[in-house]
Amino acid sequence: MSIIQFQEKLHGYGQWREELIRATDCYSQWLKALGSASETEVAQETIRNLRDTLVNERLVVAFVAEFSRGKTELINALFFSDTGLRLLPSLPGRTTMCPTEIFHDPSQESYIRLLPIETRLSDMTLNEHKQHAYMWLQIDLDHTSPLQMQEAFQELAAVKKVTCAEAVKLGLFNREMEGDASAGTPESVEIPCWRHALISFPHTLLKAGLSILDTPGLNALGTEPELTLRMLPSAQAIIFVLAADTGVTNSDLDMWNNHVRGSRNAGKNGLAVAMNKIDSLWGDELQGEDVLEASLCSQIREASNILGVAENLIFPVSAKKALLAKVRRDDVLLEKSRLKGIEDYLTNTVIHDRQRLLRETVVATMGQLVNESVVHLEIEIVDAERQLHGMRQIDTNNQDMTRRLMEETHKYQKSYLSGVDIFQSSHGAFVHKLAKLGEAVSATTIDPLVRSARKEMLSSLTTFGMKMDMKKVLEDLRLAMEKAIVRADEAGKLIKAIYGRFEVEYGCTDIKPSPISLKDYQLELERIFQEGEEFRQSTSSTLMEQTSVVHKLYSTIIAEARDLFARAHQEINAWGASALSPLARRIKDRRRMIESRLGVLRKVTESSETLDAEITELEKRLALLNQQYGEIKEIRRAVSPEIA
Fold it and tell me: Is residue 61 within a helix (H) or strand (E), and if so which, with residue range?
């Protein structure tokens, strides 16, 4: 399967995403037409958040490798061969020197933005730097001219010489890691000019939602904790590139163990290995294809054992020959390059898995709301049909019947008012517990801990002092999360008890409370802390023993933890706003039904014409309910086709 199939699959994925966006818009409009804004405000906010997620969704594929493994050449061969040239710099001595993100930003013209290496001394994270375009050097791109773009991209390979002291301060030089420690301090050191690069242009694949993360070398990962702790875990797939002529080297293994394997997020992200440069084994024609195949199989088995990756996820390839074959339209050479294996993996596994995960997200959020709307309408339709049947049985000349029906309705009304009292009392107790829960993870609780830790770290003059300060703040954050989990359990039990009471006393068996759990946030918090500690202890992070870079590591961890608490707080607020909504809606429906029934019974004492008019109005309302029911079923079919 060629990259054309990948493009078609990605395009299909994009179309499916657009259908979901249209479904969210239809549901939003449906809710607006259904009732008052106050009843649908929470649902509308959930829909808006989901829509933003769908609109901004990108399929992120990260490529990770040590220098000279042919990683950037593989990116060229996989995605940009249609330009007819080597778009990204990938020749020896002229290869990408800084982490690079490649995507399409439809809000602006094509560009490459470069973040100066000196920003490593700033306390700001890469994510924060992205919010300030003035901090980046921008080079405008002419996407209609591959040659102009190729020339502009050469800046990715730019290096410069600085004093050894400057390199040490930037965390880019450590004598022990550079070779002979007894050789003395060099006068100058060569370092990358740029810390990070952002590239945007309207390539077909990028416009369809593909985003590429190119991470160059162990030094980049070993000195930029945000890459390991934030950017790689957020990728939908990672392609780890080895070289067939070297096998798994010590630096490959260090990168794998400390920066790649640990970044997988609970198995939700794909991870595969490209064994590049198999053309280096083509040289001896006397060996024959059988010997070559046996050699490749042996290397794959060895890499599988060392890395702990299934053999079917290790793809032998020659990126160099694949790019040449595509440019020359040489099908024989393209087949020999074995690029098809990785293309098939991206097409059949990565896109499919991402679509499955996104569908799960949609079903868990909007799908739940839509199902609640379906159930609500089903109940309304049954009530309307029952009421219509009862009205048709009324004999306006039989005053005893009218009086009896009036007494029964007043009895229902008394029961309803009792239910309202219970609900209001329960709602007050729940609001109190919800406030305590939100307080445990709110910015007013977490930010003072973070500010205190930052202040203590800045005043510490040693790495040891920083570690002790961080140990304290991490423990404080753990305790905050544990307290939040206890309070979430209490709030969840209260909600369950409230629903249970209404189920027993008022027969509300068809509505169930939505659960709340912060266990996933606790697990993610521990993952962040654990991966941060493993990062610090990794071989490459000997560089991290410098105070400024240790500070950068822990700043990244704290930024991740703070974001996590913010997401937990947002989920708690959303849950709290909707937890009692089904009961509240049921109570309002019951009130409307009782008031309508009483109104009809009062009027029917006047004349039979009044009853006929009420029956006509109810028939119209029932028709409208059935129409709305058909519309919401169509929306559910778009969101959760397996349910519909």
Answer: strand 59-65
